[in-house]
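Supplementary Methods. Inverse-folding protocol.

Structures were first reduced to a C-alpha coordinate string of length 187. This string, shown here, constituted the complete conditioning input.
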Protein backbone atom coordinates (compact mmCIF):
# COMPACT_ATOMS: atom_id res chain seq x y z
CA UNK A 1 0.00 0.00 0.00
CA UNK A 2 2.55 2.64 1.16
CA UNK A 3 2.09 6.42 0.90
CA UNK A 4 -0.18 8.31 0.47
CA UNK A 5 -2.26 7.00 3.36
CA UNK A 6 -5.46 8.36 4.90
CA UNK A 7 -6.06 7.94 8.61
CA UNK A 8 -8.33 5.24 9.93
CA UNK A 9 -8.78 4.24 13.60
CA UNK A 10 -6.46 1.56 14.99
CA UNK A 11 -7.62 -0.92 17.63
CA UNK A 12 -5.45 -2.64 20.22
CA UNK A 13 -6.32 -4.87 23.14
CA UNK A 14 -6.84 -2.08 25.67
CA UNK A 15 -6.44 1.13 23.67
CA UNK A 16 -7.60 2.46 20.35
CA UNK A 17 -6.28 5.37 18.33
CA UNK A 18 -8.45 7.84 16.51
CA UNK A 19 -8.29 11.52 15.64
CA UNK A 20 -8.93 14.14 18.30
CA UNK A 21 -12.33 15.85 18.21
CA UNK A 22 -14.01 18.88 19.80
CA UNK A 23 -15.13 17.08 22.95
CA UNK A 24 -11.49 16.14 23.72
CA UNK A 25 -10.67 19.75 24.54
CA UNK A 26 -10.72 19.44 28.34
CA UNK A 27 -8.60 16.28 28.40
CA UNK A 28 -6.18 17.63 25.79
CA UNK A 29 -5.84 20.90 27.70
CA UNK A 30 -5.17 19.00 30.95
CA UNK A 31 -2.45 17.03 29.13
CA UNK A 32 -0.73 19.85 27.26
CA UNK A 33 -0.85 22.44 30.04
CA UNK A 34 0.70 20.08 32.62
CA UNK A 35 4.27 21.22 33.47
CA UNK A 36 5.33 17.66 34.40
CA UNK A 37 4.11 16.27 31.06
CA UNK A 38 5.83 19.11 29.17
CA UNK A 39 9.08 19.01 31.12
CA UNK A 40 11.07 17.21 28.40
CA UNK A 41 8.94 18.24 25.41
CA UNK A 42 9.98 20.92 22.92
CA UNK A 43 7.13 23.21 24.00
CA UNK A 44 6.21 24.99 27.22
CA UNK A 45 2.83 24.20 28.87
CA UNK A 46 0.16 25.44 26.47
CA UNK A 47 -2.62 27.96 27.02
CA UNK A 48 -6.26 27.21 26.22
CA UNK A 49 -5.95 29.13 22.92
CA UNK A 50 -2.86 27.20 21.93
CA UNK A 51 -4.50 23.86 22.73
CA UNK A 52 -7.60 24.86 20.75
CA UNK A 53 -5.39 25.54 17.69
CA UNK A 54 -3.57 22.21 18.12
CA UNK A 55 -6.91 20.41 18.41
CA UNK A 56 -8.26 22.02 15.23
CA UNK A 57 -5.02 21.25 13.37
CA UNK A 58 -4.78 17.62 14.51
CA UNK A 59 -8.48 16.87 14.02
CA UNK A 60 -8.04 17.69 10.34
CA UNK A 61 -4.57 16.20 9.80
CA UNK A 62 -5.36 12.80 8.35
CA UNK A 63 -3.19 12.27 5.28
CA UNK A 64 0.40 11.06 5.18
CA UNK A 65 1.97 11.60 1.77
CA UNK A 66 5.05 13.82 1.88
CA UNK A 67 7.95 14.60 4.17
CA UNK A 68 6.71 16.66 7.11
CA UNK A 69 3.16 15.25 7.06
CA UNK A 70 2.00 13.93 10.44
CA UNK A 71 -0.94 12.49 12.29
CA UNK A 72 -1.36 12.93 16.04
CA UNK A 73 -4.24 10.70 17.13
CA UNK A 74 -5.70 10.30 20.60
CA UNK A 75 -4.94 7.22 22.68
CA UNK A 76 -8.33 6.17 24.10
CA UNK A 77 -9.36 3.53 26.59
CA UNK A 78 -12.41 1.30 26.14
CA UNK A 79 -14.76 4.08 27.27
CA UNK A 80 -13.35 6.51 24.69
CA UNK A 81 -11.60 8.68 27.25
CA UNK A 82 -8.46 10.43 25.98
CA UNK A 83 -5.43 9.04 27.83
CA UNK A 84 -2.84 10.81 25.72
CA UNK A 85 -1.68 11.20 22.15
CA UNK A 86 0.85 9.59 19.82
CA UNK A 87 2.56 11.14 16.83
CA UNK A 88 3.67 9.69 13.53
CA UNK A 89 5.50 12.17 11.30
CA UNK A 90 7.03 11.42 7.91
CA UNK A 91 10.65 12.47 8.32
CA UNK A 92 11.58 11.58 4.74
CA UNK A 93 9.18 10.12 2.22
CA UNK A 94 12.10 9.29 -0.10
CA UNK A 95 13.89 7.35 2.64
CA UNK A 96 10.62 5.88 3.99
CA UNK A 97 11.50 7.14 7.48
CA UNK A 98 9.13 8.44 10.15
CA UNK A 99 9.41 9.83 13.65
CA UNK A 100 7.25 8.50 16.47
CA UNK A 101 6.33 10.35 19.68
CA UNK A 102 4.06 9.95 22.71
CA UNK A 103 2.55 11.67 25.73
CA UNK A 104 0.21 10.35 28.38
CA UNK A 105 -1.81 12.00 31.14
CA UNK A 106 -0.05 11.33 34.47
CA UNK A 107 -2.93 9.15 35.72
CA UNK A 108 -2.54 6.91 32.66
CA UNK A 109 1.23 6.44 32.97
CA UNK A 110 2.88 3.26 34.25
CA UNK A 111 0.20 0.96 32.82
CA UNK A 112 1.62 0.01 29.45
CA UNK A 113 -0.79 2.20 27.45
CA UNK A 114 1.97 4.13 25.65
CA UNK A 115 3.69 0.89 24.72
CA UNK A 116 0.48 -0.55 23.27
CA UNK A 117 -0.28 2.65 21.35
CA UNK A 118 3.28 2.89 20.01
CA UNK A 119 3.15 -0.77 18.95
CA UNK A 120 -0.03 -0.05 16.98
CA UNK A 121 1.78 2.80 15.19
CA UNK A 122 4.84 0.64 14.47
CA UNK A 123 2.58 -2.11 13.08
CA UNK A 124 1.01 0.54 10.87
CA UNK A 125 4.35 2.06 9.86
CA UNK A 126 5.94 -1.24 8.83
CA UNK A 127 2.69 -2.78 7.56
CA UNK A 128 0.29 -0.60 5.59
CA UNK A 129 2.69 2.34 5.22
CA UNK A 130 5.61 0.13 4.11
CA UNK A 131 8.13 2.35 5.87
CA UNK A 132 11.75 1.29 6.32
CA UNK A 133 12.85 3.08 9.50
CA UNK A 134 11.19 4.74 12.49
CA UNK A 135 13.05 6.98 14.93
CA UNK A 136 12.32 8.54 18.30
CA UNK A 137 14.16 11.58 19.63
CA UNK A 138 14.22 12.46 23.30
CA UNK A 139 15.95 14.30 26.08
CA UNK A 140 18.25 11.74 27.76
CA UNK A 141 16.93 12.90 31.14
CA UNK A 142 13.52 11.56 30.09
CA UNK A 143 13.98 8.10 31.62
CA UNK A 144 10.36 7.01 31.04
CA UNK A 145 10.58 7.77 27.32
CA UNK A 146 13.97 6.05 26.94
CA UNK A 147 12.60 2.98 28.78
CA UNK A 148 9.64 2.92 26.41
CA UNK A 149 12.01 2.94 23.40
CA UNK A 150 13.90 0.00 24.89
CA UNK A 151 10.65 -1.88 25.60
CA UNK A 152 9.82 -1.44 21.90
CA UNK A 153 13.29 -2.84 21.11
CA UNK A 154 14.37 0.35 19.41
CA UNK A 155 18.17 0.71 19.18
CA UNK A 156 20.03 3.58 20.78
CA UNK A 157 21.71 5.17 17.76
CA UNK A 158 23.02 8.56 18.81
CA UNK A 159 23.55 10.97 21.64
CA UNK A 160 23.86 14.55 20.40
CA UNK A 161 25.54 16.81 22.91
CA UNK A 162 23.90 20.19 23.51
CA UNK A 163 22.34 20.33 20.03
CA UNK A 164 19.30 22.30 21.23
CA UNK A 165 18.96 25.63 23.01
CA UNK A 166 15.75 24.84 24.81
CA UNK A 167 13.92 26.41 27.73
CA UNK A 168 16.95 28.49 28.69
CA UNK A 169 19.62 25.77 28.57
CA UNK A 170 21.69 23.66 26.20
CA UNK A 171 19.94 20.31 25.90
CA UNK A 172 21.15 16.92 24.61
CA UNK A 173 19.12 14.71 22.27
CA UNK A 174 19.17 10.93 22.02
CA UNK A 175 18.03 9.13 18.89
CA UNK A 176 16.50 5.65 19.01
CA UNK A 177 15.61 3.78 15.81
CA UNK A 178 14.10 0.58 14.50
CA UNK A 179 14.04 -0.89 10.99
CA UNK A 180 11.20 -2.77 9.32
CA UNK A 181 13.15 -6.05 9.50
CA UNK A 182 13.81 -5.54 13.22
CA UNK A 183 10.22 -4.90 14.28
CA UNK A 184 8.58 -7.83 15.99
CA UNK A 185 5.01 -6.93 16.73
CA UNK A 186 3.97 -7.99 20.24
CA UNK A 187 0.48 -8.66 18.82
C1 LIG B 1 7.03 8.83 27.98
C2 LIG B 1 5.71 8.28 28.50
C3 LIG B 1 4.67 8.29 27.38
C4 LIG B 1 5.95 6.82 28.96
O1 LIG B 1 4.75 6.34 29.52
P1 LIG B 1 4.73 4.99 30.41
O2 LIG B 1 3.39 4.86 30.96
O3 LIG B 1 5.89 4.96 31.33
O4 LIG B 1 5.02 3.89 29.30
P2 LIG B 1 4.30 2.50 29.05
O5 LIG B 1 2.96 2.65 28.49
O6 LIG B 1 5.25 1.67 28.25
O7 LIG B 1 4.13 1.88 30.49
C5 LIG B 1 5.19 1.15 31.02
C6 LIG B 1 5.02 0.94 32.48
O8 LIG B 1 3.76 0.36 32.72
C7 LIG B 1 3.93 -0.89 33.43
N1 LIG B 1 2.82 -1.77 33.04
C8 LIG B 1 1.77 -2.02 33.82
N2 LIG B 1 0.91 -2.81 33.17
C9 LIG B 1 1.43 -3.08 31.95
C10 LIG B 1 1.00 -3.82 30.83
N3 LIG B 1 -0.17 -4.49 30.82
N4 LIG B 1 1.78 -3.84 29.72
C11 LIG B 1 2.96 -3.19 29.70
N5 LIG B 1 3.43 -2.44 30.74
C12 LIG B 1 2.66 -2.40 31.87
C13 LIG B 1 5.32 -1.34 33.03
O9 LIG B 1 5.86 -2.25 33.96
C14 LIG B 1 6.05 -0.04 33.01
O10 LIG B 1 6.34 0.40 34.31
P3 LIG B 1 7.85 0.68 34.75
O11 LIG B 1 8.35 1.82 33.90
O12 LIG B 1 7.71 1.03 36.20
O13 LIG B 1 8.59 -0.59 34.48
C15 LIG B 1 5.20 9.10 29.72
O14 LIG B 1 6.19 9.08 30.72
C16 LIG B 1 4.86 10.54 29.37
O15 LIG B 1 3.80 10.82 28.82
N6 LIG B 1 5.74 11.50 29.71
C17 LIG B 1 5.48 12.91 29.50
C18 LIG B 1 5.53 13.29 28.03
C19 LIG B 1 6.88 12.94 27.42
O16 LIG B 1 7.92 13.20 27.98
N7 LIG B 1 6.82 12.34 26.22
C20 LIG B 1 7.99 11.86 25.51
C21 LIG B 1 8.77 12.95 24.87
S1 LIG B 1 10.20 12.27 24.04
Amino acid sequence: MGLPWDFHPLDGERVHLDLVRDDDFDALYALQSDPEVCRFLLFEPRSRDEVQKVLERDAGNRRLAESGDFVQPAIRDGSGELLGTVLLRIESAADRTAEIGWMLRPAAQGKGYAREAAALLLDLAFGELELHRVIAELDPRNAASAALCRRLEMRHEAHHLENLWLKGEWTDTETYAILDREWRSPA
